[in-house]
Amino acid sequence: MKNLYLSHSATIKDIIIETEDGNIKTFILELDDPEIRDNWKHIPGQFAMMSIAGMGEIPIGIASSPTEKDILSFTVSKIGVVTTELHNMKTGDKIGIRGPIGNGYPLKNQLKGKNILIIGGGYGFTTLRATIIYLIENRKDYNEINVIYGARNPGLLLYKKELEEWSKRNDINCHITVDREVPGWTGLVGFVPQILEKVSPESENSFALICGPPAMIKFSMPVLEKLTWHDNQILFSMENRMKCAAGVCGHCNIGPFYVCKDGPVITREKLKQLPTEY
Amino acid sequence: MTLSKALKIAENEIKNLLNILNDSFQVFIPKLKEKTSYKFYEWDIYNNGDEFNIFIGVPKSSIKSFFFPQPETLFKFSIQKDTTALKEPEEENKRMLFGVRPCDARSIILNKLPYSEDSYYIKKTEQNIIIGLSCNERRNSCFCLWAGGSPMGTEGTDISLTLIDASFIVEAITERGGKIIETLGDKFPVASTSDIEKLNALRASYEKQRQSIPDPVKKIQDKNLLELYDKPLWNDVSLSCINCGICTFLCPTCYCFDIQDETSKGQGKRIRFWDSCMFPLFTQHATGHNPRGAKHQRVRNRFMHKLKYFPDRYNVFSCVGCGRCIKECPVNIDIREVLRDML
Ligand SMILES: Cc1cc2nc3c(=O)[nH]c(=O)nc-3n(C[C@H](O)[C@H](O)[C@H](O)COP(=O)(O)OP(=O)(O)OC[C@H]3O[C@@H](n4cnc5c(N)ncnc54)[C@H](O)[C@@H]3O)c2cc1C
Ligand code: SF4
Ligand code: SF4
After folding, report:
1. What's the pTM value of the predicted model, to 2 decimals?
2. Which terminus, N or C, of chain B has the lesser number of Cβ atoms within 10 Å?
3. What is the ipTM of this complex?
4. How far is residue B101 from each of residues A113, A218, B84, B107, B335, measured CA to CA in Å?
């Protein structure tokens, strides 16, 4: 019987400081065992447990796309014990990885052939990064793609290199925004829901993938409703404290729904049938 | 389901049986403990000659610590910068729990539902042999029939003992139970057909009693989740709760755990230990946000998990009706009343 709690050893290959305040870093890893590396398969929207022996284990969304060969990356915000320890690590250091875990976005099924709307804010953008790269790699499988991504100020935007690259493409519409005017910023200004209203993405044959701070989600919903989006076209990625990430330890439940096992991705329709415990 | 012949052992010969079993297994029985004027039964190692008392109800603690040791080592590691060598803990000996009440035995089966892929739990089910003991009398806090069990239930046991007319009828329930009974065959007489008929009639009468109760699981499943969740009852129930967590720790079917790392001198282990949804930290995010920050939310989660979420998923309550939480709650919260209000 497989042991659910053992992780695979991985080496930190590179570390990218994402935000100006240095609080968010991307860790690019390589799984040490070539066999495990070759067999690793994930879907954008899934997560993994990152383990530092002696410190603990935490769930982090997978920021790299499965189309990026031999790369496994995670973008981590420094906030508590394990994340701080991780931020103190250097290239060459070892950590443990357990995963991939969770359902991920249904990119290979329901989303095929559809218009895709991506709405992101803060570090919630990590698995959406994986998704966008995946969509671009498989561009012909999807219809129109809109990306709306916002941060408080330009210094807090993640993945600047990719954002620049995507903005230049004409097969996806990238709307990058910051909350307030800042000298030197030539992009959009305004909160994500306001930009969403301006972009006015069509609801027909469409799916929205949304991950970000609660306020962003809350104020984006009426906009989508006005544009006649149905609740089963809206996908969220949930987050709750978790320990085992195997549906056993009892921590991450939203009523009967276990974020780790039944999620983290859930439609707005299903979420509305659950208690608001998140 | 009787797999091999049942034996009949006179009540006053039970020590002989225990002594024989004690040669091959590490046997545990409920032993009487005394603290000042407070008397209770607790699981402890059987030594040849120890008194085996039959008392009404269950020992103070459930058998869950035999299945989820408190704490349990998941693996050991050594911390060096370049390696994190992992080692799983060594296997333990076969243990026998003797005199397990049907409710407690049934908890093993219920916990196995969420733990079906957990190798540690499954290994423990292989290591622990369960000798059940039917209940001839019920304590006023017992409600196994409501919870889907029976005072003569055999679920979760390997061998079941039932005291009828001053003799134990000893039945094999599982294959490994049958093997143990085979080794005892030359030492104790075989139960007669009329003994077995008596036993089956008694068991059937309980079954009939249970079936006369309109299936509470079915009734709960038919209820709308959010309507139950939004009932005003949760505020009333939780008012007096002090969030001590005793109910969840004593509960045989509370199976939640926390995982932590312990280290000293470069050596460490990852351990898991019991946790409780009654504690605010259970759900607190690193940001400080807490989805169940308020007491009534946590009390509601406990009952909703046991009596709605779990049955919706597995078609059975996560409760065996042992009554420990009713008996030990310092503010007398009664799960039977809560269930009644939910129905
Ligand atoms: C599915 C999922 C995906 C996530 N993706 C990311 C990501 O891509 N980037 C990122 O920076 N963060 C992400 N998080 C949040 C991240 O897991 C927490 O910030 C992290 O666990 C905090 O750990 P800590 O030890 O530093 O904090 P502490 O406050 O010291 O936390 C103690 C322990 O509590 C648990 N815990 C605390 N907060 C959370 C939480 N919000 N979610 C889950 N467990 C928690 C962890 O087991 C943690 O070790 C994600 C969470 C989930 C559930
Ligand atoms: S034992 Fe009673 S007071 Fe303690 S947490 Fe449980 S319900 Fe609350
Ligand atoms: S009642 Fe609470 S502690 Fe007990 S199993 Fe359910 S969630 Fe876990």
Report:
1. 0.92
2. N
3. 0.90
4. 58, 51, 43, 10, 20
Q: Is the CB of B317 under 6 A from ligand 3?
A: no
Q: Is residue A68 part of a domain?
A: yes
- Identify the closest residue of chain A to B256 by CA–CA distance: A249
Cβ separation B261–A54 shorter than 8 A: yes
Ligand 1 centre and the CA of A17: distance in Å?
19
The response to whether residue A61 sits with its C-beta less than 6 Å from ligand 1 reads yes
Residue A95: closest CA among B228, B288, B82 = B82
DSSP string of B248-268? Answer: HHH-TT---EEEEEEEETTEE
Q: Give the pairing of strands A72-77 and A24-31.
A: antiparallel
Mean confidence (pLDDT) of chain A = 95
Q: What is the CATH number for A159?
A: 3.40.50.80
Reference B117, options A105, A52, A101; nearest CA is: A101
Q: How close, in Å, is residue A78 to chain B by CA atoms? A: 10
B239 pocket-lining for ligand 2 (C-beta < 6 Å): no
**A106-136: b (≥16 Cβ within 10 Å) or e:** bbeeebeebbbbbbbbbbbbbbbbbbbbbbb
* Domain shared by A136 and A211, yes or no: yes
